[in-house]
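[agent] plan:
  1. take the single chain provided in the ticket
  2. run structure prediction with default settings
  3. attach structure tokens to the ticket
  4. add a short note for the reviewer (M.T.)
[agent] executing step 1
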Amino acid sequence: MTSVFGQIARYEIPAYIVAEDDQHLAFLDINPLVMGHVLVIPKKEVDYIYDLEDDELGALHIFAKKVAKSLKLAVPCLRIGISVIGLEVPHAHIHLIPLNSMEDIDFNRLKLSPSKKELEAISKKIIGLY
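[agent] step 2 finished; step 3 output follows
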């Protein structure tokens, strides 16, 4: 199974990576719900998040927590929301979404199309705070 997220984890295709460790990667969603929407993935290719071993699932959430703290400092918001849906890409992932209202985490709404310049700016801001 190879997904677009697996290709990103192997650096086969570019992404706006904001954090990384040996087992995980965090990068900007290029069609975000709100600016600063980040995807957190295990580098290991697993389709369904609950197919991860317990220690892997725990480590993924701890990594996401670190990213969320940096994201909240980088993007003015009330909270960082978390969502795990898992239908759009067959690779386990967590959405971290800066929230100022409940509408910010509505996946039925029209997604944004930020420019390369906007994505680069927000990724640099998050990286600088990680």
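[agent] step 4 note for reviewer: The CA atoms of residues 81 and 97 lie 5 Å apart.
[agent] ticket updated
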